[in-house]
Amino acid sequence: MTKKRAFAQGLVLALTLGWTALAGAVAVPELPLEQFVKKVQFRQMKLSPTGEHLAASVQFPGQEDIEGVVIINRKTREITGNLRFLKDETVADFYWANAERLIVTNAHKKGYLDRPELTGEIYAVNADGSKALPIYGPNAGRMGEMQTGSKIKKATKAMAHGYMLDTLKNDDKHILLVSLPYAADQDGAIPKVVKVDIYTAKASDVVRAPVRNARFLTDHEGRVRLAGGVGADARYKLYQRDAEGEDWQELGDYDAFGGRMYPIGFAADDKTVYMSASLDKELSGILSFDTETKAMKPVAGDPVSETMGYVWGPDRLPLGAEFMPGRSTFQYFEPQHPVAKYHKGLVKAFGGQRVHFTSFTDDGKEAIAFVSSDRNPGDFYIVNLETKKADYVASVAQWLEPEQMAEKRPIEVRARDGLSLHGYLTTPPGREAKNLPMVVLPHGGPHGVRDEWDFDTDAQVLANRGYAVLQINFRGSGGYGEEFTSAGYRQWGRKMQDDVTDATLWAVAQGIADKARLCIYGASYGGYAALMGAVREPELYRCAVSYVGVSDLPLMFRQGDIQRNNIGLAAMKRFHGEDEADQRARSPVYHADKIKAPVLFVHGGDDERVPIVHAERMRAALEEKGKPYEWLVKESEAHGFYGEANRKEFYTRLLAFLGKHIGPGAATAVAAK
Which of 232, 497, 570, 633 has the highest CB neighbour number within 10 Å of its CB? Predict the structure, then answer.
């Protein structure tokens, strides 16, 4: 039995308890790549309202690329029902509508760098596997009763699709869904809320949104109370209606790319709403908002980090928030609630790991806790709030031992203009962090996205092979306030790139990295940053890797899926400006002559976010200048590789490329910058 599993047996939540299994740095063997690319066993897990059943999203053993949901009887430990989706689909989420009926949503796999896209299909199935039925979307109610374990047929096109809003705790027959028309124009859909019978698929309208692309919030009685969305004018508008269902009233009108408020959930009184805000220094973090008086006041916040997640209690009650100035921290705006106190004890018991509840039984006595960290991809526990015990259930990737993973250490770096930058340094476990070959790994996005204190497969693979990994949240990244994010607008290839360079030189100055053995690798925007790093710093990086990376900024305005609607186009103009000459000046494809480092291109032939023409044009530019490069393309993949074989081939090529240029056998002499 591993240390993790041994620890899990009857965990007693004494406040002095700490998880010591991860303590200490020990040398670890070179792990097979198969362990890092293997698809996870369980991604989500939730208890039924009575606690009798457990539902989990799974990769079906022996059925390559087939994913779905299984339902397990906790007493007998037998699988009583399941739903399986098609090869190109995955489980988006699932919800217990009552003690016997599970609601499941699915999504198309579009590449792991982007979230899978919801299909709009909503399914329901009983815990014993009976009465499986599409209850909303293209095939709603058309297929009759399905057999337990049968595959869901691929949806046909229809007029509307939906996603979950509320399971309606006081109504065992109905749920609330958000319905979106397929035929929405380029400015996005005006959604509505519909009430759906989970046994017959009969649906009726509840309320229409006051704004396009709206997200709704219900109170604890299932009444639709708030809606917020972004229209063609690139303004985020927030609306409220009272419990009696009167007309929508506007609460706020914000720049969609600036500070704003998002509703999280209602307090128990159904009068107070907790909001995640980034309005200014006084009104940022978590605010309480009185829906009657309109009064607002801060209840939680961090001077460095924006909100990164929430602590939920039973009945969707928000109790606290997660922040991440470096490692994960939690603050509680309902600190006296028993679940908030219990959560605080769990975090301490698990040694400061991230702890999130996925579900509760109706009586509030049991819950499922998901525990994860930089070295732990995640474990599920059933926790008893009365006995204060936690029983281990399963791991996301049981074959990966946290003791063999590398620590992701928070760092702070000063940019050349004095701006404070936060990020992470991962070094090989059991080795001194001194004079190491280093891979600089800028994240994708880039705006509104950040590197987090979490399990990062790229960093773990590289650290296991002896490389230090540097991840810096350059200006323009999300998670550090609106001022920090907007500081990156129109700074692609300029100050954003300078931040990456400054962090690289910091690691060298600290003696962590060997300046003669540096490589820059990234995906999507990170691929762009890798190419621009090779352009801007030809004497610094010995190699560059562009994984589904952008090479031509003007081309982004003409090809790809971002500019296809007015909101995406407005974002492009805000991020890049409208001066094509300036865009060309910041595009690697027009500066191939400056590149000295060999480049590895990795791309998917079916990529819609960054079409492969970006890689093809960059390759042609390098060929024209006689520059070295390597090429790896998978025609069936999109914005990132999904297939295990393809991911293994990618890492194999990546490690060979790095080994050639900055590994132990690579030349160490490099001209000083």
Answer: 497
DSSP 487: T
Strands (E), 140-173: 160-166
Q: What is the per-residue pLDDT for 148?
A: 39
φ and ψ at residue 665, rounded to 5 degrees: -90, -5
The residue to which tokens 């595009």 are assigned: 587
Flag whether 95 is in a domain.
no
Q: Which residues of the chain have pLDDT under 50?
A: 1, 3-24, 144-159, 667-673
Residues whose CB falls within 8 Å of the CB of residue 529, separated by 6 or more in sequence, listed in order: 442, 446, 496, 497, 500, 520, 522
Would you state the pLDDT for residue 15? 27
Are β-strands 513-523 and 543-547 bridged in parallel, bridged antiparallel, or unpaired?
Answer: parallel
pLDDT, position 89: 81
Of the CA atoms within 13 Å of residue 34, those in its CB half-sphere come to 2
Evaluate whether 397 touches 38 at the Cβ level (below 8 Å).
yes
CA 502/CA 477 separation, integer angstroms: 16
Count CB atoms within 10 A of the CB of residue 246: 9
Q: Does a cis peptide bond (omega within 30 degrees of 0) precede residue 116?
A: no
Domain range for 523 is 410-662
CA atoms within 13 A on the CB side of 98: 15
**Is 103 contained in some domain?**
no
Q: Tell me how far apart the alpha carbons of residues 55 and 99 are, in angstroms, rounded to a whole number.
A: 12
Backbone angles phi, psi at 291, to 5 degrees: -70, -15
- DSSP assignment string, 117-149: EEEEEEEEEETTS-SBEEEESTTTTTS-SBPTT
Total of domains in the chain = 1
272 assigned to some structural domain:
no
CATH number at 498 reads 3.40.50.1820
Burial 494-508 (b: 16+ CB within 10 A, else e): ebbbbbbbbbbbbbb
Q: Are 319 and 367 in contact (CB under 8 A)?
A: no
Phi, psi of 208 (to 5 degrees): -100, 145
Beta bridge partners of residue 300, listed in sequence order = 286
- Assess if residue 634 is contained within a domain: yes
pLDDT of residue 513: 98
- The pLDDT value given to residue 311: 97
At 175-215, the pLDDT tens digits run 999 998 765 556 677 899 999 999 999 999 999 999 988 99
Where helices occur in 233-276 by DSSP H, the ranges are none
Give dist(CA 260, CA 253) in Å, integer. 8
pTM here is 0.90
CA distance 196 to 200: 8
Task: Please give the helix or strand (H or E) that residue 343 lies within, else none.
Answer: helix 338-349
